[in-house]
Queue: 2 jobs
Job 1
Amino acid sequence: MINDFEFVQAHDIPAALQALAGEGRIIPVAGGTNVLVNMKRAPLPADLVLDLTRVEALAPITTGRDHVRFGANVTFAQLLEWSPGGPLQELVRPMCMGFAGPLIRNLATVGGNVCDASPAADVSPVLLALDAQVELESAAEGSRVLALTDFFQGVRRTARRRDELLTGISCDRPREDERVFYYKLGKRRADAISIVSVAIRLRLEAGKVEMARIALGAVAPVAMRATDAETVLLDGALSDQTIAEAASVAAREAQPIDDFRSGGAYRRQMVETLVARGLRQIAAHRQGAPSA
Amino acid sequence: MTKRTLNFTLNGQAETLEVAPRARLLDALRVDLNLTGTKEGCGTGDCGSCTVLLDGKPVNSCMVFALQAEGRDVTTIEGVGKPRALHPIQQAMIRSGGIQCGFCTPGMVLSLKGLLDQNPKPDEDEVRRAISSNLCRCTGYSKILDAVKLLADEGTTTETTEQKPWAIGARMARGDAVDKVTGKAVYGEDVRLSRMLYGALVRSTFAHAKIRSVDVTEALNLPGVKAVVTGQDTEMGYFGYEVRDLRIFALDKVRYNGEPIAAVAATTPDIAREAASLVRVDYEELPAVFDPEAALTEGAPLVHDSLEDYEIDWETERGGNLCYKVEVTDGDLERGFAEADHIVRGVYETPVAHPGSIEPHSSTACAESSGRITIWTTTQKPFVFRSYLAQALKRPISSFRIVPTAIGGGFGGKLFPVLEPYVVLLAERAGLPVQMTLTREEEMAATMGRHPSRIEIETGVRSDGSLVAHRLRMLFNTGAYGPYGPNTAALGSLMATGPYRIPNLEITGLIAYTNTPPNGSVRCPGGPQLAFALETHLDRVARAVGMDPLELRMKNAWENGDTTCTGQVLDSVSIKECMRKAADAIGWDKPRPPGVGRGIACNWWVSGTWGTQTLIESNEDGTFRLISGCVDMGTGGMSGAIMQMAAEGLGVPIDAIQLVSGDTDTLPWDHGHGGSRMTFTIGRSAYEAARDLRQQLLTEASGHLEAPPEELVIEGYRVHVRGQEERSVPLSKICYARHKKHGGPMVGVSSILDEPPPTTKPHPIGAFPAPSFCAHAVELTVDEDTGEVRVTRYAAAHDVGKAINPIGCEGQIEGGVVMGLGLALMEELREKDGRVQNPNFADYLLLTAEDVPPIESILVEQPATEGPFGVKGVGEPPIAPPTGAVANALAELLGADVGRLPLSPEEVSSLIRTVRS
């Protein structure tokens, strides 16, 4: 089979939806940093490549008081330069710094990475920690909203129907008093595929954990929330003991595989290590913070 | 699939093109517009050599569909600066020495431009981050970072030097840098011939299987296919280096996953690959063996049925899966062990590592009507390749004309034919030129890597730290074929003692065949493996006797008059000075701050040699032509140190000498670029040829000036009588008169013969001419939770004999250190059932600019007794000690016994767990 497809550039969302409603195998592309890798390795199973880069409506980041929305075409370079301040920035910026390298960051988009649904995608744990919801639109059925946890269905499998366009991702904007942690463990400092990545977001009220999000990358078929570990933390103080327990529960929740990038045992152990590290950092920050 | 119109702005000009929907921006630039300054190193966004600016932002042009560029602004290297109007970034890259092979350079320049256009005064971290997607395999990034510093200092420094810029010892910019920094240099895949076809290989999908049949019918019937060749319809001979056990196609059986079975040529690369997938091979799978130790046990599946079919140059015991065995003994080992107060044992393992040149192999062939064939190819050894082709295709050596292209990194990976035989056969069969380029995946999975090793050492030491007995057994896996196996074992056996006195020895080197992809001769073959094993082991020895590792090494280090294990008497030993300087540079004697580990490691290595001939010929205008068949794989020696030595020998300005480029029809024979030989061997030859020509010039001038030649001086472009500058004649006049009236040009000639120093013991290599010595010291920290290692400081002291061009020496050291740190920390081709799991730059990791520590390169100059200026080779050795130095620093910091590379976070984490339990 040889690469033999048509190429259409959509200029607005209706045009993109109309193209997606057509017959045949359609591959939407924005940053292209996954599609073109695939095309280098084997002919694309496509009759049409639909370029979304000119759909301006997909470009902006919109920020409200308690939510933020990333247009599907937001690039990681754009996200790196973005300065929302507060815990949101503390979570997003280190992820962007560790995301591939500067060349790919200038192309790759948030929407594209979510749709690619690699279990090791760097952006996914951060979005999961922010309770992300994906917005999907189609010509036939209008729009629907899905929790990101429901959108991911397996290794590089999502709930997106073939005629649907992912238009944006809506997330919580963490309150100023929330605490966050992000760590990507890779084999080198720049441009590495993660072995494990961890995003944590916590809200404490009067010394007790009121809300907890622990999200993990590269340790399961999909980027995942460690919900049991979150439950361990809820309504309790962030003590050494609960931290250790939550970390160990998170490690049990992970379903890492052995592959040439890393052994599963190491991945699991790193989940425990990094979740504990994140929670300890958050606890220390909490203790050091001036009382309101 | 109809072509579509693309309108965009290219380098400031409106451009309209018809492109296929599948075309990438990279294809539009390289193929449709013939702008070959943009390179393809991987095609998967992992190397950065295809970087262009898209609306001012650096991006991988392999990650953009051409049609996505509609209406946008694209800048390629061709739009940055021109040879006579270089951009300041390009000028700075040339001055700093930030260019070696040059293949990554266009992309690097564009990433820097993207940064500096936005942020004219970036700090070093910002620069490192901005180029962290651009892999450089040669420079180690240091001199690229220096280029940005030069830009920042622009106008504030004035260089005041009495020295001629080309004098011996001057920091000279290499002559080929302008071509490289502007994207004009022509590499393998940049060759374009009219009506050229594209080739692809059919490769085995089994590690070990009988071939029942090969059916090419379907492939031949695919429209666009012009030729298919297989082993069945080709006259094939065995070829190789010391062992000739390879044929270009598997015939009766395949011995590794990825072995070529057939080759096809078609009108486009896509059709060629499609056709390759249509060749039907019927296999009968055979039991396979992947582990070298298992391969040498009785009853293991045999990779080769009969080794007797293969010629071997060196005497050896062989049979079964044993390809080669070398043994060296000295003194009385049992007595040595009896005298020892401690006996320290260790086992050390290193994985397959890849040369990782950013330029993949690419070769182009055109059959001439005379029956001869011309091959344009990216090769370190154009002349030797003719011999390999002659063996492989059973034809006369001189029936091949090889035109070497610029080389986008060699490191040993371009020492041996990879694509040349196939393009020859396809071009002949098709009657049209054929080009074949490896994908990154093929490059990593099926071209030769560094031999993985398992090294067992048992060392006897007295309480005072003297080494008295040493038993070392090294086993290398050569894969399915062993063209460079014997060489690796033999070199390894010479490094088995390191630069240390050990009176009682037993060294065994074994090369085993397995059903894994073949391994070859990669920069300092055997060096990093032995440096890791031996130097890590010596730290264990030091711990056993309670000595500082540096002190133990100093106590046993060679001095002048000592002999190597083969009886070579050493007369220019500098290892103690190297150790002292490297150790001092990281503050070895100062107390370790908590959490910091320090390590030291040494090595010694060969300079050259092999035969060469250099000619220097006069032009009629008083300029000269330096004619050598040696190619430059990127180090810069040919247009740097060699030219400096020629200019010194002649006594003329370097601008008066042109470096002639040519091919195997026009240039004198040379053995090629490898073995750290360029400055030592080609330099010596160039200098001697220059002295020869100088004498002829003076004789000619003597007639013009009516003074004896010994009273004449060449200065600038004139010859004058010593002390009487007014009595002079221009070189142009001398040369013109000589050319016109007295029988053409004057030619200075020097032929260098291979004469290794004497030894007392039989050994296939015996001695290292002008051995070089080095010591590296490292400081690092570890995240003890995750096992991540951070190298914070690095010093490398190398005895180069004499630094002809210090920029070049430092470039070799910095680049070698970074490659060696890669071996220490992350480089590993992972094989599973004989199949490479990570054949790409996303999972076979080279260090990026963000991973590289500051490196202090220290040039020690202890002149060699051979050759002019006392130069010693420096190309290969810097890659060896980092493995040992890093392992020792980690062992010290963690209190662990390190025994395996690479020291990935996972491996280090497991060391930490072992210590804690």
Note: Chain A touches chain B through 51 residues (CB under 8 Å).
Job 2
Amino acid sequence: MKFFRSIIEIFGYSPFNALLRHAKLCGRAVGLLQQQFDAYRRCDFDEVERLRDEIDELEHHADLIKEEIRGNVSKSLMMPVDRHDLLEFLRVQDDIINYCEHVGHMLTFKKIKAPEDIWNEFEILLSKIMETVNEYEELVNHISRLIETSFSKREIRDALEHVPKVERLEHECDQIQIGLHTKLFNSEMNPVDIHLMVEWVVHLGHIANSVARAADRFRIMVLGR
Amino acid sequence: MVDILTITAILIGFYVAWNIGANDAANSMATSYGSRALTLKQIIIVASVLEFLGASLFGYRVTYTVAKGIVPIDMLNHELVVLGALSALISAGFWITVATYYRLPISTTHSIVGAMLGFGLAAVSQRYIELEQIKWYVLLKIVLSWIISPLLGALMAFLTFMLIRVLLLEKFRTEKVEGVFRYLQVLTACYVAFAHGSNDVANAVGPIVAIIGCKSTPYWVLVLGGLGIAVGVATWGYRVIETVGKNITELTYTRGFSAEFATATTVLIASSLGMPVSTTHTIVGSVIGVGLAGGLASVNLRVVYKIVLSWIVTVPIAAALTISIYTVFVAFV
């Protein structure tokens, strides 16, 4: 619109909505991964590949959001949180979906036959990671309330209550991983198959780990104002 | 001849008032629309009525400063004052139009003050007055008020929002607090419109008062300016309000209240001291103040450079333009 003098520009780009959208994509990616493991167990390998593509797409979408935030959060913006803390939080949160993508691909490398009890363990691990990321999403969901209340003490307390919960769940993931590793190394399966499945477990561990680290970076960002 | 020039001045003054209503008044009201404290229709009514009241009831001090505070017009002969003030008005009107076209965040206040200074300098160059006779002391006070007003707006908005934060947002549910401030923001919206009218009407009618040459500011001139602003809000300002308001949705009632209260109070203080300040720049200062108090998700400080730049540029441009137009007038009239 021509013939227009305005003060619009003083209201800068706000990254918080985008951060929330990015977090939701991470949660959805873990959900798809869970479905992918189910499909693998059923030997529905077409579905496994389809889900890999779907996760890829989510990861790409997340990258676009990440770039949008990085491209807009310039030094001249005055935000209620530290810019570096925010970007570091984003970087770690982005790791969650990156590792989802890795695992998604690893599931398409080879068609492995594995005993039922190992699949059961994987199912337990996946649902525990899902639980962790759900708890994490609840944490990040507090961002808009935090801004509305200008980071009131009560709201900070309510939000950060989720952080130790995420950490506890991540610890439980670790325990399941240890059990799964032991089972795999002691199984009668072919060594190459064992190796690949161990890789899955390690990378699933990275997902849970990134969720816990992102929760920690969120706390640093909120408290480091 | 003088009659024709006076009528021309009145028409241009009305145009400048219209432009102020269309852009600046609209901007000061957009914060109320951004938070949805009022509907667009309500805002236009409130803005038109209160801008008019502010201009007609409280605009005389600043108008006096613009008309007589900078150039010692009592020492010049009447015809010269008519030509000079008309040149200043044309120059300011032209620059405001160009800047608006290119969407530069200039201030109509700076334009008219620069333009009147240009008229003074032209009179000096013709040796009608001495350089020392330009009221530099008043000019210095005006420039100081330009620096102080955004700072005062920022400080007041910071304190206001801090109080709301500590006393209310920490203790009560956000929805409850915001609900109360929804009504309070209706009051501050009126307050801003009134303050804006009282200060900015001078930018349009100050030179007209100089031209008419009365001892005191005639009431009808202020009414004319107030009317121009009101018409500007109603005929074009609503678009500006809509566009700006859509982009500042993150401004909740408490934030809008803080920014508006600080802006209106600062501008009204300036009006009562007869200081022509920029309402737009005061709003920008106030928004930054709310941001400093942790009230906003994001404030873009790059705008500050743009504003400072537009300031430094506006005064000499308006002055130079006035001198050129005046020279042409003197040669042909």
Note: The mean pLDDT of chain A is 95.
